[in-house]
Amino acid sequence: MAIVLMYNPEDNALLACPVYQTTGLECPGCGSQRAIHQLGRGEFIQAFSYNALLVVLLPYLFIGAIMNFSPLSQKYENIFRIFYGSKASYLLLFLIIAWTVIRNV
């Protein structure tokens, strides 16, 4: 992550997307390097323009990671299960698939 913050991916992509290179279609992660770089610089609107789904999901994923390794997850197990259980995983998968379709239409 530090590499993406230090080097601007717009100038030279660290890892080019193989899906985009072979098919010309944007995968759900396309623009993530540029978005993370812009988030690190505090440019939220620019980051959102590169990959809106990533910008929206980062707080959700961050909170989930913290809760997963925190003793609070046991105290608030019911809430944790609602937001990070199997139904939430299916919803997240649906959002990723929908995002992929929408950005390529």
Task: Describe the protein.
There is one protein chain. The chain has helices at 2-6, 18-23, 32-40, 44-50, 52-68, 72-75, 77-84, 86-104. Helices cover 71% and strands 0% of the residues. The chain has one domain (2-104). With 105 residues, the chain is an all-alpha fold. It contains 8 helices and no strands.
TL;DR?
By secondary structure, the chain is mainly alpha-helical.
Topology:
Blueprint: H1 2-6, H2 18-23, H3 32-40, H4 44-50, H5 52-68, H6 72-75, H7 77-84, H8 86-104
Helix pairs in contact: 3-4, 4-5, 7-8
* Tally of discrete structural domains: 1
Number of E-type strands: 0
Order of helices and strands: HHHHHHHH
**Radius of gyration, in angstroms, nearest whole number:** 16 Å
Query: Major sheet, described briefly?
Result: none
- Summed over residues and divided by their number, the pLDDT gives a mean of 87
Percentage of residues in DSSP E strands: under 5%
Ranges where pLDDT stays below 50 over 5 or more residues in a row are: none
Query: Which structural class should the secondary elements be placed in?
Result: mainly alpha
Helical residue percent band: over 70%
How many helices? The count is 8
What distance separates the N and C termini? 30 Å
